[in-house]
Amino acid sequence: MTQTGRLAGRIALVTGASRGIGAAIAKRYAAEGAHLILTARTEGALEEIDDEVRAAGGTATLVPLDLQELDKIEQLGAAIHERFGRLDVLVGNAGLLGDLTPVPHIALKQWDRVLTVNLTANFRLIRSMDPLLRASDAGRAIFVSSGAAKGKAFWGLYGTTKAALNTLVLSYADELEQTNVKVNLVNPGPIRTSMRAQAMPGEDPMSLRTPEEITDCFLDLAAPDCTRHGELVQAY
Length: 236
Fold this sequence. Notes:
Layout: E1 11-14, H1 20-31, E2 35-40, H2 43-55, E3 59-64, H3 71-83, E4 89-92, H4 108-135, E5 140-144, H5 156-175, E6 182-187, H6 194-199, H7 215-222, E7 232-234
Parallel strand pairs: 1-2, 1-4, 2-3, 4-5, 5-6, 6-7
Helix pairs in contact: 1-2, 1-7, 3-4, 4-5
GO molecular function: oxidoreductase activity
Pfam families: adh_short
InterPro entries: KR_dom, NAD(P)-bd_dom_sf, Sc_DH/Rdtase_CS, SDR_fam
């Protein structure tokens, strides 16, 4: 993988950055010169990815954050404004799978929890980070979608959150048509992650691509020269 410095000097926020796709994006962005703001629920997990970011030649600000605590998202936006005055890249990656079960059997607490993390938290991120993205000379926002958004048996909870996220993000993108901000969604497809293993326990993980194998897409969409906007990009 050739490092090109395409994100040199850029400020990039990645949610769910301690493992899987988020961790792979963080390491790739670090190698390309970005300063990272990384969120995850546990400080220990963030410290581990911070070591890898530093090994890749990058720097990071670590923010332990449970996205269910929605007001803390606004606090994060205020802190970014105070320290940096802008945000160049937002990657809304954090997500929960929830139970794979028939729709009538979805537990109410599960419904509320998964919708909060997968949908409402991303709305609050958009709401909080929008002024910071507009303050960038080339703001970029990228959100992680899923093929489950099309609707399939037992995936009603997770799929609903992703279908709603698609609509939210594409609406936001349409509103920014005349600005310097580019907004897109990425459907990674089947990837070797712990969430995938939880959803498909009988699947051979070695038959799947690693998170690192799809970071080219996230780099292209984060770069200042990106021209794609308002798209659901299929990364497979």
